[in-house]
Amino acid sequence: MFPAMRKTLLAFLLLAYGHDLLAQLPTNSFAVTSPCPASAGNPSVLQQVNTDGSLTPIGTVTDGGTPIILNALGSDDNNRSVVYGLRVLQPITVSNFNTPPSLYRVDLATAQATNLGPVAPPASPGDVTTPTQSGESGFYDARLTLNFIGDGDASSNYYVAGATFRVFYVFDFSVPFPFLRPVRVSDLRLYVGVIALPTFPATPPVWNRLDTSDPATAAVIAGYQAEVQAFLTSNGTLPVPEGGIQDWVYDVRSGTLISYLGQNDRFISISTPATNPVGTTTQPATPIPTQQNIGSMFTDRDGNIYAVDADGGTIYKIDRLTGNYTGSSYGSAFGCSRGDAVSLPGALPLPVTLKSFTAKASNETVRINWATASEDHADAFLIQRSRGGTDWQTVQTVKAGNRPAGQSYSTLDGAPLAGRSYYRLGMRDTDGTISYSPAQAVTMTGKTLVRTFPNPANGRFTVQLPAASDAATRVELLNATGQRVRNLRPEAGMMAIPVEASGLPAGLYYLRVQQDDATQTVPVMLSQDGNQ
Q: Which one of 72, 99, 490, 519 is CB 3.0 to 4.6 Å from 469, fit for a cystine?
């Protein structure tokens, strides 16, 4: 994540200083990384984060072939084949700094990103009355959607952050080209926005102002506002302000958003975030042993919370209720990179430490291989398949060996779907909890899509599809010169389609079937009787 407010207020107010820092990534299921320096505008690379902290690249995040930078990753529990993120535009300019970031959906198998539309910021509050002071030329009210905070809840909501504030300025004539120089910030307010992923962008985000009546939470906001003002009045000679919320994570057990401020060791919980967000700030009795920004946070299926040192990349496990450091920390394999990570439901810890999982087409079957480094209280492995990556079906169940040192497994799907489909591995614990591997895309190009009977045929025959037809299914009969002589659009749900060929001359024909993003052409012989 971007350190909170650094990307927003400072980029908004101090374009001349060019601060636009992406934050360090945690060890979790998936991450987007952008190599240093952030100012270079290197595109994000989607990576699988392995349980040992290493990274396996999936691909550069692209929108229609154009590489992009993403941040604020979140997930949708009802669609685990994708993640969501907000786009970061580089470089920041006067013309784009207040442009609402667009929300993207990223395919975890291909790193292809789909632009879902801009996320409108919260409305300007109508109760700001702070006037100009002596020497100030004027003010303007700013409102922003922050592109560095995002997380999904237990359903299909995506939580983002917004801010409104008043900026006071003076006309600076000390340079050849006079400009408005910010000198003071007031009335900084934070908001929690809820995006309903299934209906966005038709349904805009719902914004609710964060209740900061808790004195400690109000002090966090006021302290950061003071840092920004000191930096502004020093003309950028003081250190860049680094206070404020850096990231948050949704705790499914309590229904709260949680944040840890590493610079001053504050633990913030936001209750009822979807309707009436209320902030409560405490100081952990056992703080994280770092004074650096906490750039990213994630959680696991057991409710553990992990906070990541944004500068060094070290991952610290903290208590989800108190923010206390538990004594567990994890090394970083990210090196110098910036970006964000997301925790899919049930990501960590696993009953199985998965070393690898692959699904590859093999003739007319799909070979599924996986290997484990350790197994503890594992019950079974579920081979799951999906046409589009959303509706998963278990096609095989393999009993777990439960060997502490792990083992290798291999199986075949003898009846794969035609065209493109997805496979994933479900790892079921003895308590019934299931965690999932990343999805693997498989394209069956050599599999026979259809069969016809009888063949040869005398007047009529039947087309047998391997999967039920839908609105996109097309069945065409072509003669030997390629002319279409029959064109059928079967009703949805059909697998056996009758073809009436009476009246056609005998000879060789070709049946062309388009189904599930694949096309197959098979020969059909019509006998002499077919012309009678």
A: 490
Do 220 and 244 contact (CB within 8 A), yes or no? yes
Q: For residue 84, give every residue at least 6 positions away whose Cβ sits within 8 Å of its Cβ, in sequence order, or none.
A: 73, 74, 75, 76, 103, 104, 105, 106, 150, 152, 158, 197
Per-residue pLDDT of 343-392, as tens digits, reads 565 554 556 778 889 999 877 788 999 998 878 778 899 999 998 877 88
What are the beta bridge partners of residue 266? 261
Please tell me the total number of residues recorded for the chain in this structure: 532
Question: Domains in the chain, start-ordered, CATH in brackets?
Answer: 26-343 (2.120.10), 352-444 (2.70.50.50), 451-526 (2.60.40.10)
> Which tokens belong to 443?
């394209």
Name the pTM for this structure.
Answer: 0.63
For every residue of 109-176, DSSP letters joined together read TT-BEEEEEE-PPPPPPS---PPP-TT--EEEEEEEEEEEEEEE-SSSEEEEEEEEEEEEEEEE-SSS
Q: Residue 27, SS3? A: coil
Residues 6 or more apart whose CB falls under 8 angstroms from that of 302 comprise: 349
Q: Which two tokens stand for residue 69?
A: 């930078």
> 73: which residues sit within 8 A by CB, 6+ positions away?
30, 31, 32, 83, 84, 85, 150, 151, 340, 341, 342
Tokens 């060929």 found at: 501
Q: Does residue 121 contact residue 131 with C-beta atoms inside 8 Å?
A: no
Neighbouring-strand partners of residue 47: 31, 57
